[in-house]
Specification:
Number of strands: 6
Distance between the termini: 84 Å
Structural class: alpha+beta
Helix content: 40-55%
Order of helices and strands: HHHHHHHHHHHHHHHHHHEEEEHHHEEH
Oligomer: single chain
Strand order of the largest sheet: 4-3-5-6
Radius of gyration: 26 Å
Shape: globular
């Protein structure tokens, strides 16, 4: 049989395969429909917002990585990776550049490089390699950050940053790239992320603390939250009906409104406005790092150019309208984003099942790269604020000694000091010390390591405090006591009142055998 008589068998090797694949992709794209408005301005705003979040996150790392996880830090990254290696784990299990070296220099290089690249993104340099580099650098930090990076917003940065890679062209330095249109598929994936962030937070509350169902959580949340803001005092003293309405409104925003982002265009826009307004209120009510700012950033994916265009000059709106009419996605772009959607769909199975589970987990990654995660916030709310206060003394004996307090930048210490406004910046020791105040030393072994570093006078570690009462030489003894803090009543002087509530860690010296044995038991660093 001659070649011209061979049957028409289609295969990847057939010369007709690629045209047929292209026609199939175009058919699928046509079924989705071409909207009247594109997402050029949406992409511009979303990437600038992510650049800002990355900048804050990396800038924080430049100041805190070395004292927290440096070679002589509280919980050194090198020791952590050594323990992982001894347990049979490697780079395939815990992806991070610091497997190569976890020196202080390496930590700072990664942090400052991330800071520089995020500034470039803010200035308009938003291409796939830059966004991929930012994602790799921050993944490297989070995966060795241990308890200091164990928060839901770190997973949010990684997920949002990963999607951003597929929102950008491969090259170019323009803020409004003209060759690659923004992908509607990626925008929908961001909306799916918004839904999981908000709906997960709502469900964890209903399934968690009974005060959310009884509408009483706000009676004490503003006082007991990790890092109160200056407005927290005023919100705490709001009328009871306002606090009850606040909890009810929280349930509406987190459990009902997220469904609307999958609705028609105008409904989706209204839902996004409600969600963003809610985040603004949360920013004013407390210092939740960049959690709320990042949520606002991904909510931008709910808008199109027709909605956001009102915020831009007319000439910019006309320019993106021309781009929307003229520029079409290439077959390669369409195939790539469809592949991305398929990967996200598969990885979403476990997070979706988690939302349906009565044993819902809060802030958990189900894949090693944290591409699709589950989220939640304040599943339980304490009704009393117990604060860990670190104190030192120069006296020769701790009995009857005069104790001086280390003061953190934004945690309650002196009762007359007004709560600070630090968001979106993240003071990681301030956050972690809040957990220590609500628990025991054995559940927060890092606290013993922190005390040990203070006894040795480590300059990097003492630099994490706003007030170091021993600037010239380290104290002889350090202890950690617990106080019960309450907001003052209207008319009372100051912001806080406090009363002693026991001891978290007894007075110890740098050569205390009990302290050294405790550190060794938890594989924490002990000096030469």
């Amino acid at each position: 049989m001659e070649a011209r008589d061979a049957p028409d068998v289609q295969s990847p090797e057939s010369p007709d395969f690629r045209p047929r694949l292209r026609r199939w992709i175009e058919w699928a794209d046509a079924r989705l429909g071409r909207p009247a408005h594109g997402y050029w301005l949406t992409r511009f705003a979303l990437l600038r917002a992510l650049g800002f979040i990355y900048f804050i996150a990396f800038l924080s790392a430049t100041q805190q990585l070395v004292p927290l996880i440096g070679v002589h830090g509280v919980t050194p990254a090198g020791d952590y990776l050594a323990h992982l290696s001894a347990a049979g784990h490697g780079s395939s299990d815990v992806p991070t550049l610091f497997w190569l070296t976890s020196s202080d220099t390496a930590l700072l290089v990664v942090a400052w490089l991330g800071t520089a690249l995020s500034l470039a993104v803010l200035c308009g340099v938003t291409n796939a390699p830059v966004m991929a580099a930012l994602w790799i650098l921050y993944t490297s930090i989070v995966n060795v950050g241990q308890v200091w990076y164990g928060y839901g917003w770190e997973l949010m940065v990684l997920e949002a940053g990963f999607l951003a890679i597929f929102l950008c062209p491969l090259g170019g330095l323009r803020p409004l790239p003209q060759r690659m249109p923004p992908s509607r598929v990626v925008m929908w994936l961001y909306r799916w992320m918004v839904f999981r962030v908000m709906f997960g937070a709502g469900l964890i509350k209903l399934r968690g603390d009974a005060c959310w169902r009884e509408l009483t959580c706000l009676d004490y949340h503003y006082e007991t939250q990790p890092v109160p803001s200056p407005l927290s005092w005023y919100w705490h003293h709001a009328p009871e009906w306002v606090l009850r309405a606040g909890v009810a409104g929280n349930h509406v925003v987190e459990l009902i409104v997220p469904w609307l982002i999958f609705g028609p265009r105008r409904v989706r826009h209204v839902a996004a406005v409600i969600l963003i307004s809610f985040q603004v209120l949360l920013i004013l009510s407390g210092n939740l790092s960049f959690l709320n700012w990042l949520t606002i950033a991904i909510c931008l994916a709910c808008f199109d150019d027709g909605a956001l265009g009102r915020l831009f000059p007319r000439r910019v709106r006309e320019r993106v309208a021309r781009l929307h009419r003229r520029v079409r996605p290439s077959p390669a772009q369409r195939l790539t984003v469809l592949g991305l959607a398929a990967v996200v769909a598969v990885l979403s199975i476990q997070p979706a099942l988690n939302l349906l589970s009565s044993n819902q987990s809060m802030n958990r990654a189900y894949d090693r790269f944290s591409v699709v995660n589950t989220y939640g916030a304040f599943g339980s709310v304490g009704d009393a604020r117990y604060q860990a206060i670190i104190q030192g003394t120069d006296d020769s004996s701790p009995d009857g000694a005069h104790w001086k307090s280390y003061v953190l930048p934004c945690q309650p210490g002196p009762v007359d000091r007004r709560p600070c406004l630090i968001t979106p910046y993240h003071l990681r020791l301030d956050w972690q010390i809040w957990f220590a105040g609500q628990s025991t030393l054995r559940r927060n072994p890092w606290l013993a390591s922190l005390v040990y570093q203070l006894l040795r006078g480590d300059d990097d570690v003492t630099g994490l405090f706003a007030v170091d009462p021993f600037p010239d030489r380290p104290p002889r003894f350090v202890r950690v006591v617990r106080y019960r803090y309450r907001f003052t009543d209207p008319g009372q002087p100051g912001w806080w009142v406090r009363e002693p509530a026991g001891e978290i860690m007894r007075p110890v010296s740098a050569d205390d055998p009990g302290l050294l044995d405790f550190l060794r038991d938890y594989d924490l660093p002990v000096g030469d």
